[in-house]
C-alpha cells in the first residue's frame, strides 16, 4: 500500500499524528508531510489540529476523495477534464493496469453505445474502471449488468429511486406515470446514467475489461437531452458526487469481483429491473422482437414471450411499451 492510501485509511479512523503514522508505516515524517500536501493539492483538504491530521467533512469529488473510505481495492486517477474516461482507461489497460478507476469532472468527447454522442458536462460522475477478470469472453456481459446494479445502488444511496431498463440503462420514473410525462420521455423513464463496456481478449479469456459509467449527477437538465434527467433534479438538491462514485465502485467490486459472480449478479439485476413483466420491443440486427419480458438468463440475455413462442435476445435497443402499443 502506498503512503497516500495508508494515510487516507488512517484518516478514516479519526485524527492521526504525523510521527505516529510515520512509525507505523516505517517511513520518514517528511514522507508523511509530502503525502498530506499531495492530498491537499488534489482537492482533499486535510486539516492540521492539535490532535493530528483530520479528514475534511466533505471529502470532495477528486482522486483521494473517492478513495477515502473506499473498500474496493481500486486506485483512482482523477482529471478535471478528459476527452473520454474510457479512452484513458483503455490506454492504461494496454500498459498493463488493473484495478484503476479513471474519473473526470467533465468529458469533452464522451460516447455511448454504437458511438452515439454522450453529453458529459462538468458536474457529472464520469468514470471508467480497468479490470482483468479471469473469465471467458462470453461472460463479459455479466460485468455490464453488475455495473448497472452498482449504478442503481449509488443513485439510491443519494435518495433517487433508480431502476434498470434492459440491459444497462439506469432510469427514474416510468412512462405510465402520467400522459404529460409519457409524451416527454423515452419509453421506460428518464435516463440518469449510461454504461459502456469495452474489452480485449480471446474466446476463452478476457485480457481486460473497461467498464465506463456516466451519471448525470449535479447537472442542469437544460444541458441534457429531452429524455434525460439528473440526480440533482430528481432529489431537489445537489448530491455528493464523491458518495455516488464510492458506492458505485464498492458495489461493483462486491458483485463482480468474486468467483461466484454468476450467482450474485443476475438476482441483483432482476431485483432492480423495471423491464421484467413489461411489454417490450427490442430492435435487433434480425428485426424487432415484441412481447413480454419474463426473465434475464446468463450471461445477460433477455427472455421474451412472444405470440410465436419464447425468444432470447442478447443485444438490441429495448423500449418499454404500454399495453396498447404494438
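-> sequence recovered:
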Amino acid at each position: 500500500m502506498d503512503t497516500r492510501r495508508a494515510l487516507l485509511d488512517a484518516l478514516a479512523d479519526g485524527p492521526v499524528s504525523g510521527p505516529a503514522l510515520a512509525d507505523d508505516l516505517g517511513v520518514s515524517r517528511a514522507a508523511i508531510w509530502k503525502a498530506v500536501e499531495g492530498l491537499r493539492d488534489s482537492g482533499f483538504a486535510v486539516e492540521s489540529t492539535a490532535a493530528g491530521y483530520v479528514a475534511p467533512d466533505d471529502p470532495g469529488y477528486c482522486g483521494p476523495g473517492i478513495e477515502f473510505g473506499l473498500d474496493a481495492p481500486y486506485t483512482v486517477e482523477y482529471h478535471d477534464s478528459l476527452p473520454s474516461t474510457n479512452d484513458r482507461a483503455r490506454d492504461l489497460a494496454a500498459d498493463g493496469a488493473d484495478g484503476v478507476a479513471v474519473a473526470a469532472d467533465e468529458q469533452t468527447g464522451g460516447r455511448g453505445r454504437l458511438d452515439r454522442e454522450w453529453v458529459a458536462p462538468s458536474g457529472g460522475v464520469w468514470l471508467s474502471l480497468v479490470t482483468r477478470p479471469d473469465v471467458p469472453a462470453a461472460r463479459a456481459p455479466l460485468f455490464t449488468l453488475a455495473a448497472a446494479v452498482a449504478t442503481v445502488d449509488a443513485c439510491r444511496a443519494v435518495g433517487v429511486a433508480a431502476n434498470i431498463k434492459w440491459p444497462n440503462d439506469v432510469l427514474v420514473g416510468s412512462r405510465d406515470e402520467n400522459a404529460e410525462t409519457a409524451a416527454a420521455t423515452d419509453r421506460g423513464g428518464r435516463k440518469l446514467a449510461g454504461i459502456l463496456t469495452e474489452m480485449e481478449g480471446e474466446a476463452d479469456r478476457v485480457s481486460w475489461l473497461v467498464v465506463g459509467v456516466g451519471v448525470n449527477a449535479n447537472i442542469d437538465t437544460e444541458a441534457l437531452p429531452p429524455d434525460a434527467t439528473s440526480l440533482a433534479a430528481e432529489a431537489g438538491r445537489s448530491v455528493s458526487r464523491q458518495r455516488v462514485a464510492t458506492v458505485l465502485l464498492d458495489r461493483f467490486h462486491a458483485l463482480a469481483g468474486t468467483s461466484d459472480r454468476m450467482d450474485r449478479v443476475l438476482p441483483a439485476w432482476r431485483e432492480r429491473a423495471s423491464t421484467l413483466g413489461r411489454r417490450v420491443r427490442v430492435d435487433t440486427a434480425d428485426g424487432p422482437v415484441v412481447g413480454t419480458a419474463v426473465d434475464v438468463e446468463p450471461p445477460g440475455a433477455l427472455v421474451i414471450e412472444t405470440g410465436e413462442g419464447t425468444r432470447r435476445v442478447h443485444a438490441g435497443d429495448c423500449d418499454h411499451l404500454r399495453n396498447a402499443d404494438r
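The CA atoms of residues 155 and 162 lie 6 Å apart.
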